[in-house]
Amino acid sequence: MNSTGPPIETQRLGEALGAGEFAAVTSVLVARGGDVLLELYTDAGAAAGELRNTRSVTKTITGMLIGIAVERRHIGDVTARVFDLLPARRRSLRRWDERKAAITIEDFLTMSSCLDCDDWNSASPGNEERMYVTGDWVRFALELPVRSLPEKKRRSFRYCTGGVTVLGEVLEVATGQSVPEFAHATLFGPLGIEAVRWPFSPRGLAHTGGGLELRTRDLFRLGQLYLQAGKWRATQVVPRAWVARSLQAHVAVDDSTSYGYLWWLVTYRLGSGDVQAYTMSGMGGNRVTLFPAFDAVVVVTTTNYRLPNAHALTDRLLTEHVLPLLAGTA
Description:
This protein is of the alpha+beta class. It has helices spanning about 5-20, 55-70, 80-85, 85-90, 105-110, 130, 135-140, 160-175, 180-190, 215-225, 240-245, 310-330, and strands spanning about 1-5, 25-30, 35-40, 50-55, 215, 230, 235, 250, 260, 265-270, 275-280, 285-290, 295-300. The strands form 3 sheets. The chain has a 9-stranded antiparallel sheet, with helices on both faces. The longest helix has 19 residues, at about 310-330. The radius of gyration is 20 Å and the shape is globular. The two termini are about 25 Å apart. Residues about 1-5 have low confidence and may be disordered.
């Protein structure tokens, strides 16, 4: 196991990981003020150079790319209508409901479109497992039936990978580049991120809804970028206003969780107080979490994909080990 950082905290967390307390957690990185305090890998043979499949953490990166595309005027703004940007898709759909014409970029960024799509419900017509067995994932999403929405003009959250997949095609049509090309030129390149592996749909579209592989240290850079309001060294990589808007609560997920632009807004308990966190989250309990109160970024990568309590395990790792470390260095 490779580690740097405070010896006592490294030892405690290292022992917990070695004992299998957090199942298949593969790496943990804790940074404060841009400096790494603690870095642990359970797969010592691969260590820092290993690419990590953090699943839906990809979605948040897609949101970053949308923000850059808006800033560069490839896309008007988040109120732009998806079918105005993808007119060929509108003409080719086999089923049409006029209510779909109003779907905007923001609807997909906030998981609140009118499409009947819910990955948390195995019976949902738009569940992502149904999408993966089709030849055209974007067509699958756009041909979904329309669900009933609240009468009042407020957003209603339904976790939908299909909608974020559509954003990949929006990016390619709007920018005239493939998603990997645009990401390298505008986001990964400026951050010095070179080791990247994208998954692709059967039609060759980079999957913007999940499965992008990056190194732990590069996931940290993406988190640090947002902690620094989109600026990396002397370059404003993601617009400052977009970062602020992305981290705002746009829709309620449940009584304790809100959703921004493909970011999760959660609160952790530390002692008698609450700590606000902004999280990029993926299946298995994969996380890139910002704790602004501590000027901290925490990366947790795992392969706990089939573990029912995987997210709860990562939450426990954060509350029992990481937050006490950060509080102790305040």
